[in-house]
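Need residues for this backbone.
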């Protein structure tokens, strides 16, 4: 019922060209859809709603947060990360709860992207307690310990359910396995698949076959640089070369440049000027010119009258 009422109000605001009202009602509609897990409907509404320059920083932050959640569910992690970090950065200092929610989702998205958030993210003032479950989760992913990951997920399952991030954390299992496999490939030049299964703590009926499948997929995806000796049941890691001879430093440098340029563009767009200020300035200048011409004309007429007398 509330959804239909909000849609009717949004239609009225659109017909009246009330952009601030449209912005507010769009956020309310997105919030309502996301509350009931209607992500497809939320995306359809968001994509078809008219776009215009944000009139309220608070409403724009809410929109970025909802957009980040939609992008996360749609597996578009890069766009989701950008939206969530931007929402947290633009949010007012007093909006602590909102910034905590943005940070929680941003941490999950960064982990899904294979990134490890810095410790300072979890040590922000007023956020330490709320972000503690996500700090321990990040530590488990960083180490690549599947057992530790499971214990953290069970320990804070109630918190993750309240935050509605439990389904996203289930997706992290693959990242944990891949991180552990990457650590193994760096530590060992050659290791049996049975030992790989033991170190990854794979709890399956046929752990060796699962380990072989996981290693094969990681090699194909480029996560590790290794080969599989199927006859002997080994994973043979290739010698690690100089990372500066690859394109990875260039890619990291380009991503930082893009981030800085994006922040600069956001700052420029955030500059606010009074509406029609340039027109008002032109009108004021014309008014001064007219007054000056009238004064000169009055002075000229007065001088002519004096000459006649």
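Answer:
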């Amino acid at each position: 019922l509330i959804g239909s009422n909000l849609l009717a109000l949004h239609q009225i605001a659109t017909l009246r060209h009330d952009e601030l009202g449209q912005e507010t009602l769009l956020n309310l509609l997105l919030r309502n859809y996301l509350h009931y897990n209607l992500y497809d409907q939320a995306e359809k509404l968001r994509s078809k709603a008219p776009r215009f320059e944000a009139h309220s920083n608070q409403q724009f932050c809410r929109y970025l947060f909802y957009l980040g959640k939609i992008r996360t569910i749609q597996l578009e992690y890069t766009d989701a990360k950008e939206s969530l970090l931007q929402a947290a950065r633009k949010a007012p200092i007093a909006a602590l709860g909102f910034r905590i929610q943005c940070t929680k989702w941003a941490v999950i998205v960064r982990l899904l992207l294979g990134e490890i958030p810095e410790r300072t993210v979890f040590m922000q003032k007023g956020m330490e307690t709320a972000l503690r479950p996500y700090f321990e989760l990040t530590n488990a992913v960083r180490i690549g310990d599947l057992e530790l990951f499971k214990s953290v997920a069970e320990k804070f399952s109630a918190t993750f359910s309240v935050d509605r991030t439990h389904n996203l954390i289930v997706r992290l299992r693959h990242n944990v396995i891949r991180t552990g496999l990457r650590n193994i490939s760096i530590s060992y030049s050659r290791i049996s698949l049975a030992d790989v299964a033991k170190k990854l703590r794979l709890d399956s009926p046929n752990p060796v076959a699962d380990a072989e499948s996981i290693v094969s997929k990681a090699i194909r995806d480029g996560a590790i640089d290794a080969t599989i000796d199927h006859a002997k049941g080994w994973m043979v890691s290739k010698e690690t070369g100089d990372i500066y001879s690859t394109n990875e430093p260039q890619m990291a440098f380009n991503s930082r440049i893009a981030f800085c340029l994006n922040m600069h563009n956001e700052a420029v767009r955030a500059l606010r000027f009074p509406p029609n200020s340039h027109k008002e300035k032109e009108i004021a200048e014309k008014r001064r010119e007219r007054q000056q011409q009238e004064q000169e004309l009055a002075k000229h007429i007065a001088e002519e009258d004096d000459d006649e007398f």
